[in-house]
Amino acid sequence: MKKTVNKLSRFHIQLMLVILALPLAAIGQEVGSMERLVSPELADDNTVTFRIKAPKAEKVVLSGNWMPMVGEGMAMTRKTVALTKGENGVWSTTVGPLEPELYGYTFVVDDVNTLDTANLMVARDGTFRTENVLYIPGKASELYWVKTGSKGTVHQVWYESPTLDLTRRMYVYTPPGYADSNENYPVLYLLHGGGGDEEAWPTLGVANHILDNLINSGKAKPMIVVMTNGNPDQAAALTVSPKLEPSTQPAGGMANMMFEKSLVNDVIPYIESHYKVKPNKENRALTGLSMGGLQTMNTTFENPELFDYIGVMSMGFADLSRFGIEVDHSKRGEQIEALKAADPELYWIACGTDDFLYQSVVDMRNELDKHDFDYTYRESTGGHTWSNWRIYLSEFAPMLFK
């Protein structure tokens, strides 16, 4: 009787395994027959095909940051391209050819912004949007991608800011070979724009890739790059920051000079006491875009002896009243003269001809010219975009610490 029970048990077990295996096999066959959705698909001629499966959607369009803006003033929106519905509910469109660059894009499905789930490359553009990233290889974008060679390290660093009464986060890039070197290094302080945070330059700006490639090719000196959070009312990016009371200052305190004070009193001392840093102004550089450009001007006008290399991107002597910000211009002439007397090695200004702040740069240059202030001007095509700011960094960094 005991042997019979054992035989029946083995039989039942084998039968159960067969039954369980049937649906698993069917699922496996179905999965194997499914084709993976490819999007974006880059062709040899740099045309790009985008696809998304949305069988119940009535309308799907593509929005990419290479597309022109339409409308006027605050009502301006990005032009879009319609997708066509095909088999199995897959919508698609082909655009281009596109020039070599890093681009951002999203789908808009029945008026809802939607990420391309077939594309794992995603970047957050501050508080404005989250987009997929599209890389078009070529000479103009060769600095933006990881290449064979030594790599620097990007550190997330929390530090105390008594000036702002916050524990804050910044990103610090150390160049290839830093950990094993006994050398000290110069420092570039790199500031983001309004709506961004300390994650902007390492992600959208791919600053670490640009610096790695420039340093490895011998085009730029090995340097430490400090990427701070320029919002004085934030401890860190909103994705990780402790909950704070919203700022009562216009535009989050963009022009209240508190970040600038913290940069000088908290950030620089921390970097120079925790990293292998060369001291003195000839080993310090400061640059920033948009809001970061304003903060660069404010910091260097208030502290003319602190930096020998200064870069202002997409910002000038702007009327910021539209943002509720009133800037005191009464000391401008005196500040220009003080900075002129400090004789920085490089004062570099860069702006696109389609930038909405272009006129502010014209006004700034006219004012500097009145004081015979020595500066270098870089004018490009394009507007207030990362496509320009990545280029500006790739041109500014090789001019430093020579």
TrEMBL record:
InterPro entries: AB_hydrolase_fold, Esterase-like, Ig-like_fold, Ig_E-set, Mycobacterial_A85_antigen. It holds the Pfam family Esterase. It comes from the Bacteria. CDD domains: E_set_Esterase_like_N. Keywords: Hydrolase. Gene3D superfamilies: alpha/beta hydrolase (3.40.50.1820), Immunoglobulins (2.60.40.10). One of its GO terms (molecular function) is hydrolase activity. The keyword Transport does not apply. This is Glycosyl hydrolase. It comes from Flagellimonas abyssi.
